[in-house]
Amino acid sequence: MSSPVVLISEEEIQTRVSELAAQISSDYEGAEDLVLVGVLKGAFIFLADLSRQLTIPRTIEFIAVSSYGNGSESTGAVRLVMDVRGNIEGKHVLIVEDIVDTGHTLNYLMGLFESHRAASVKTCTLVRKAERAEVEISVDYLGFDIGDDWIVGYGLDYAEQNRTLPYIGVVSPDD
Ligand code: IMP
Ligand code: MG
């Protein structure tokens, strides 16, 4: 595989993350029991940067789901690999995702937290591939819209590679 070509620079990401953190801090001002739920593994870096810039009280949970094998083909089915540890009932849940592709993962997670009787469920994703949507998802906080490219870096991988790049780059899996 050839090396990733920069699509979103480190500086652009950091600027956008700060903007999102400011918006979220203002929207949840005064809200009790905000819990950020990071979706493993891809959201771990985004969640770390975003959560440290919030100016409001919040707790952190993680959840792990799987919808892909080690490649880039979506199966459509979402499997819960690891649930959150804490009790979600009555809490304001903000799901923090790396990327919305077909939308199946976020759709599944929103239903899951609603069935756990969260006080509210909102979504924050760093990246969205709008043209690939198979289910309509309302994204409350969006970093960037991109086209139909496979991206890596800033938490995102291709076959577990390139997660820790500071920028988001495009790879061509077929190379
Ligand atoms: P969805 O269920 O199709 O929306 O897929 C969402 C999940 O697929 C994301 O949480 C990622 O883990 C993975 N994914 C989709 N597109 C990409 C990409 O371009 N790079 C890395 N992971 C991706
Ligand atoms: Mg993910």
Task: Describe the protein.
The chain is α/β, with parallel strands linked by helices and 175 residues long. It has three helices and nine strands, in the order βαβαβββαββββ. α2 (44-52) links the parallel β2 (34-40) and β3. The termini are close together. It binds inosinic acid and magnesium ion.
Main attributes of the structure:
globular; alpha/beta; binds magnesium ion; binds inosinic acid; 3-stranded antiparallel sheet
Helices and strands in order, then pairings?
Blueprint: E1 5-8, H1 10-27, E2 34-40, H2 44-52, E3 59-66, E4 79-82, E5 92-100, H3 104-115, E6 120-128, E7 141-145, E8 150-152, E9 168-171
Parallel strand pairs: 2-3, 2-5, 5-6, 6-7
Antiparallel strand pairs: 1-9, 3-4, 8-9
Helix pairs in contact: 1-2
The structure holds inosinic acid and magnesium ion.
Strand tally: 9
- List segments where confidence is low: pLDDT < 50 over at least 5 consecutive residues: none
**Class inferred from helices and paired strands:** alpha/beta
Shape: globular
Largest sheet: 6 strands, mixed
Helix amount: 10-25%
Characterize the quaternary organization of these chains: single chain
Q: Order of strands side by side in the largest beta sheet? A: 4-3-2-5-6-7
Mean pLDDT: 93
